[in-house]
Design brief:
about 300 residues; alpha+beta; Aminopeptidase; 7 helices; about 25% helix
């Protein structure tokens, strides 16, 4: 087995490896070599990739474990600063089930690389640095990659955050009357998906009292199956209007409007410890599809600010 620093020469077997790895991960779809090369451009150019939310990295590198021309493991890491603290970031880590030694080898190589820069902590699978095509918005490391979670835990990483995803395949909605007098508006916006994103707003006496934002699965993946999904990324009811059934009504209205334009499946998500939202979504028709977690390893105490 060889541990190599990533170069474009390994792009084809690396893409095949990634597609095998995520085959059973919810909301992950096969990618092309070109798509995968885009997230690695910061490694090849020496200029860190800047993702859409502006939280880029100062530098990036990646390591690949190869045996007889087949990728066994892969890790993509970077460096950033948080409040004058040097921090390492594992953007992605994966290894073939049963190839634990390969996974351990690339993880150790990446940690050795990061320690040269005196990092005090290493974050793994932060949603801010995730690959666009990996899962949906806010996703961390999926439970479906439990062997990767286990490797991180064995090496001293602990869960620092979590996000749970719900699915509702082939959903059907019968909209009832609004619980209070309101007017609704829907704004559509074309982005990356084949179908548009939506913002549904509820108003009462010219005051906005609620909002529901949903985006196409095509925001995250170009794969045809992703286009039938949408992900509700925001649902909010103003304080004095909560507890009256308006949240459920607004969500159902958004589901209805998305179905009208061709969406078949719905997803929604929330923090791992937001039990109110977990209770609400699981009683609206959604079912848990995936638990995802961010990980952190503390190497040393950060320097004291001057």
């Amino acid at each position: 087995m060889e541990i190599l620093q990533y170069t474009p020469d390994t792009q084809a077997p690396l893409t095949q490896f990634y597609n095998r790895l995520i085959a059973n991960v919810p909301h992950c779809y096969p990618v092309t070599e070109k798509e995968f090369a885009i997230v690695l451009r910061g490694v090849t150019t020496g200029k860190a990739d800047k993702n859409d939310n502006g939280l880029g990295l100062d530098s990036e590198t990646a390591f690949v474990a190869i045996r007889e021309g087949v990728v066994q493991a892969f890790i993509h890491v970077g460096l950033t600063q948080i409040r004058e603290e040097n921090v390492g970031v594992i953007r992605f880590l994966g290894y073939e089930r049963g190839a634990r030694r390969a996974g351990q080898a690339v993880l150790e190589r990446a940690e050795d690389y990061l320690k040269v820069f005196n990092v005090t902590r290493i974050f793994a699978f932060r949603s801010e640095q995730r690959y666009r095509f990996y899962h949906l918005e806010y996703a961390f490391l999926s439970d479906a990659l439990d062997h990767v979670q286990a490797l991180l835990g064995f090496n001293g990483y602990h869960r620092s955050n979590g996000w749970v995803f719900f699915d509702w395949k082939n959903y059907d909605i019968t909209l009832t009357s609004a619980p209070i007098p309101i007017t609704l508006s829907v704004n559509w916006k074309d982005e990356r998906g084949q179908r548009p994103n939506s913002v549904v707003e509820a108003h009462q006496d010219d005051e906005q009292v609620g909002s529901c934002i949903s985006v196409s699965g095509g925001e995250y993946s170009s794969h045809r199956d992703a286009q039938d999904w949408f992900h509700t990324v925001y649902l909010e009811i103003e304080g004095e209007f909560q507890g009256q059934g308006l949240g459920r009504y607004l969500l159902q209205y958004a589901l209805q409007e998305m179905k009208k334009i061709g969406y078949r499946h719905a997803a929604i998500s929330t923090g791992w410890d937001d039990y109110r939202a977990l209770l609400f979504y699981s009683n609206c028709g959604y079912r848990v599809a995936d638990w995802t977690y961010a990980y952190e390893k503390v190497l040393s105490e950060p320097p004291t600010p001057n």
